[in-house]
Amino acid sequence: MPQTKNAMVRYQILDRLLSDRNHDYSLDDLTEAVSDELAELYPDSDGVTRRTVEKDIHFIEFENTPQAEIRRYSKDCYDRKRGKSVKKRCMKYADPGFTIFNQDMSDEERELLAGALNLLGHFEGLPQFKQLEALRWKVGVRKRKHKVISLSKGPSAESNILGQLFNNIVNRQVIQITYRKFKETEDIEFIVSPYILKEFNRRWYLVCKDCDKDVVRNLALDRIICTTPLPAYKYEKPKEDVSKRYDDIIGITYINDNPLMDIIFWVSDESDDYVHTKPIHHSQRPLSDDESDALRQQQPSLQGGTFFTVRCRKNYELIRELTSYGKELLVISPQTLKEEIIQRTNGMQQAYSKMQN
User: Fold this and answer.
1) Tens-place pLDDT, residues 106-120
2) What are the extents of the domains in the chain?
3) What is the second-level CATH architecture of the domain 169-239?
4) How many CA atoms lie within 13 A of 156 on its CB side?
5) What is the rounded CA–CA span in Å between residue 25 and residue 34?
6) Half-sphere exposure of 25 (CA within 13 A, CB side)
């Protein structure tokens, strides 16, 4: 192979892109993808030109051993900048299993893959992907008779939507989602770049980028009617680690305008051990003796128990968690949060008082 700068790396990237059956890449798309990956590997790289990628593809197709058969075809794609549908000239390997880098799997790699397959197969809450059993046989992994790990099943685990979205995320594939909100009679359509699947309280959510409104959405899987892959659309990578946005909250609802707040609450002796061993938030810690003594002087009605603090953003799930302990957990500060909880509990009391015995 020619010993030009980064040539081998470019061939490896193109080899993978040309075998990708989840996207339709034009020459410009391939040039951009190779440039992006080179920039990640070599920050000082200036990327590649369209002409360089053309030469690389010619080498793969006609000069390399083995030579590749590349299929060229046209694909309709909606161009947002132009606001109309355009035809895109795409290319990929005629044989989806072809690669110019035929390498056998090492024993260590085989063992690692076998362990991962066994683990995946034991997750009761996840759907079984069609290729899993075939891959087991290929690497010589036997399926265990008894499950090692069991997850609580939500409605989405009973359908194949979880597996479909998993594949869309892994393959960085833009999808169109038909969605219906609660108490709505008409469906909504989103075109999104899917980022992660997140489970909370036995319900699965897709965290994704709305390609039209440039916002990150949480879409409940049990409200998704159907999904349609859009292989000709360009996938929009997240600008940050999306999973980290949930470090500052409880649950799934992330509100940008809600700032981080330091929340202090008291827990009775009856629930103290439970809150100790099952923290409300990963930032939870008990207050020091001096801090606790100062609060006991301010709140003499609070006998025994423990004072805790957490640092997170306010959302619906936080309020629900703090009120779920009833009188065994009382919020001390901030005052705005305390008043909101008082308003909620007063509303509950009024609703109960109206009920007939």
Assistant:
1) 667 666 666 676 666
2) 7-93, 169-239, 260-353
3) Roll (2.30)
4) 26
5) 11
6) 29
